[in-house]
Design goal:
This protein is an alpha+beta fold and 343 residues long. The protein has a domain at 282-343. 26% of the residues lie in helices and 24% in strands. The protein contains 9 helices and 15 strands. The strands form 4 sheets. Strands 6, 9, 10, 11, 12 and 13 form a 6-stranded antiparallel β-sheet that branches. The longest helix is centred in the C-terminal third of the chain and has 16 residues, at 264-279. The relative contact order is 0.16. Residues 333-339 have low confidence and may be disordered. Keywords: Metal-binding, Zinc, Zinc-finger. GO terms for molecular function: zinc ion binding.
Length: 343
């Protein structure tokens, strides 16, 4: 299919939704894995782990996950995306059954965002490379409870690499029986990378952090609801104090590109799928909270603007804190309402 890119404007918020969904739902380290156990203090109940980073981290909040990954997925599982809603095994433990949908969602993203910052940098780099150099991107944020929007060139985004001192939390995921262990935090310093965008003629004023949920719920975006962070720099600097005791953002390394990440071929496939979904946006919408497609069932539509779609009422409510600032009724309707849109 031929596309006229002269008028293309990529919406950064929507692209972030799609990239994160396509990445997390096919993440190779956790592909088809089911959550066996969650631990926040002491030992796991179902397995004994001697990982020093976990056993010696009693001084800071921690969360650990044990996953069971099938050596050979069933035919039905093979093409099924991995989601928070299918992360539990067929017969979950009593403790797992007590988890709320929001807790499951956080655990899902926290596990899949181990070492996620550089993967997401490379992923967005692959995605932008699929478009001409002159492609523009629309950046939408909310500052002081007011919407802000500007358009800039997609290839003028900057990669910001910094050090976080004394991360405030530790998370660990162990995938069995392959014995893959991923750890975030627990060391004096850790590397972190984000994307910076600028309004024309200004310095970096907006930050996109696609892997923010590696730090748990403090990494949720707008008003603690979003699955990634897209916000003004001033707000992000405040957020960094929740990630770690210190940071060197002011001395961060700034670059236009980074070297390829592990699993580069998979990331390129994710970028291609995201591009296809963006091109098909008029006929195949996605959830404005998690980025999921309808998958055979129509998504619910925002009754006010008729443009945003959601998996369910919970996702609509989670997205509303951001969407309400950009939700406008179709011009054909001369209606005025300050109430939250419903399905």
């Amino acid at each position: 299919m031929d596309h006229n890119y002269a008028d293309t404007v990529l919406d950064l918020y929507d692209i972030a939704l799609l990239l994160n969904y396509e990445r997390a739902s096919t993440e190779p380290r956790f592909r088809h894995a089911k959550l066996r156990e969650v631990a926040t203090t002491g030992d796991f109940k179902t397995v004994r782990l001697l990982t020093p980073a976990w056993t010696e981290a009693a001084a800071i909040p921690r969360v650990g996950f044990i996953f069971d990954k099938p050596l050979k997925p069933t035919h039905a599982e093979k093409d099924e995306p991995d989601l928070p809603t299918n992360m539990l095994p067929a017969s979950p433990s009593v403790d797992l059954r007590k988890l709320t949908p929001t807790e499951l969602e956080t655990h899902y993203w926290q596990a899949r965002n181990h070492d996620g910052c550089y993967r997401t940098m490379a992923l967005l780099q692959h995605f932008i490379d699929l478009f001409p150099e002159f492609t523009r991107v629309r950046v939408r944020t909310v500052e002081n409870n007011a919407p802000r929007s500007y358009t800039t060139l997609a290839n003028e985004r900057l990669i910001v690499e910094m050090k976080l001192a004394s991360p405030r939390t530790l998370s660990m995921s162990c995938v069995l029986p392959v014995n893959t262990t991923c750890i975030t935090g627990g060391e004096p310093t850790m590397d972190h990378a984000i994307l910076g965008f600028s309004a024309p003629g200004s310095d970096i004023d907006t930050i996109l952090d696609l892997s923010s949920l590696q730090f748990g719920d403090v990494g949720r975006g707008h008003k603690g609801r979003s699955l990634f962070v897209l916000e003004p720099v001033s707000q992000y600097l405040d957020r960094l104090s929740k990630y770690a005791e210190g940071h060197n953002y002011d001395q961060a390394k700034i670059s236009m590109r980074i070297n390829d990440a592990p699993d580069s071929e998979w990331l390129k496939e994710v970028a291609q799928r995201t591009k296809l979904r963006w091109h098909n946006r008029a006929t195949d919408p996605w959830c404005g909270h998690c980025g999921a497609p309808g998958r055979g069932q129509p998504l619910k539509r925002c009754s006010k603007c008729q443009n945003a779609h959601y998996c369910n009422a919970d996702h609509q409510q989670a997205a509303w804190t951001f969407h309400k600032h950009f939700c406008t009724e179709p011009k054909a309707k001369n209606l005025h309402s300050s109430k939250k849109a419903s399905f």
